[in-house]
Specification:
The chain is mainly α. The protein has 2 domains: 55 residues, no CATH class; 45 residues, no CATH class. Helices cover 50% and strands 5% of the residues. The chain has 4 helices and 2 strands. A two-stranded antiparallel ribbon has the order 1-2. The N and C termini lie far apart (83 Å).
């Protein structure tokens, strides 16, 4: 590792582990650095990269590839989930609007009959 060879760089060195869900947030600020990182394999290192008034050096310690699904592949699942959520919201709305009218005398009679069995 670079900091083991050059201890004076330790204060300037930062380790970053970027997961697939964080990738897009990082790529907005250092997208060109990620483009370079895509092209190297585990154990490889880059030259110094000058990006956004900062210097980057990539030492690819480990790389994990995750499978991403295309929109077309996920479209039906997403649409099904959206429909289910809309249906549940509609049911909750109808339940909230529902007014139960009860005849206390009929209810009393029904409960009394049930208890006498």
């Amino acid at each position: 590792m670079l900091t083991e060879e050059y201890e004076s760089l330790q204060a300037y060195y930062d380790y970053a582990e970027v997961s697939s869900d964080e990738y897009s947030a990082y790529s907005r600020s250092i997208g060109d650095v990620f483009e370079v990182a895509k092209g190297i394999q585990t154990g490889e290192q880059t030259e110094v990269i000058d990006e956004n008034e900062a210097l980057y050096f990539i030492d690819m310690i480990d790389r994990k590839e995750y499978e991403f699904y295309s929109y077309e592949r996920m479209k039906n699942n997403v649409m099904k989930q959206v429909k289910e959520e809309k249906f549940e919201a509609l049911v909750e709305e109808k339940i909230a609007d529902l007014q139960i009218k009860m005849d206390k005398e009929s209810l009393y009679k029904f409960v009394k009959e049930q208890l006498s069995h």
